[in-house]
Design brief:
The chain has 237 residues and is mainly alpha-helical. 62% of the residues lie in helices and 0% in strands. Residues 1-28 and 50-59 have low confidence and may be disordered.
Length: 237
Amino acid sequence: VVLVRWIYVAQIQLALHCPRYHYITKSTDLTTFVKSIETMKTAIFATFLASAAAFAPSSEKASSSALSAFKDDVGAITPLGFFDPLGLVADGNQERFDRLRTVELKHGRVSMLAVVGYLITANGIRFPGAEGIPDGLAAFPALHTTSDGKAVLMQMLAFFAVAEMINRDAFGKAEFIGDYRNGALDFGWDKLDEGTKLRKRKVELNQGRAAMMGITGLITHEVLGNSILPGGYLPGH
């Protein structure tokens, strides 16, 4: 409503003071012009109402359906339980839920690697041949402006390609979403009891959620110039 009012006032001010608007409306008196703006305001307001309705929950029944379908999922953890404020799976769509969980797990795993890498490089540790690459966000320009950076970039691209190829359920052997062992890697997982497996899955999911917030916080503080690392060290500066 505030935006519509602002548009209305701005149009009137333009009509009164802008030469170009005088040119456009020179054949129309101000009263007629104001009426046309009122009509446009009504149309915009109706559009906003329709947009808001599109994002509103379809029904309490749909929300109850989703709650009953996912309330016992591994990610529904105390104290929030099943938490879907945007209603992304309010209709109880299992396929959409599985896709979103896959995305959440992947982002969490990448973020855990990102936090570890950020802190290790901030401590001055580098792979051989990458000693000249700065830490923090300053590393990105170095990837394409220095010879060492270009070599690191090629290694990163190769790692990303391999990671994308192997991190998927290639043979339909996954026990759960995110299980990409493909019958080749185990590390003792099959010897664990079901309770331990469930606990470890919850740990990974929560650690990934924390890491997504963690890497976001680290980068944000670096951009703002505020160190949150020991000794007041600020990566990239």
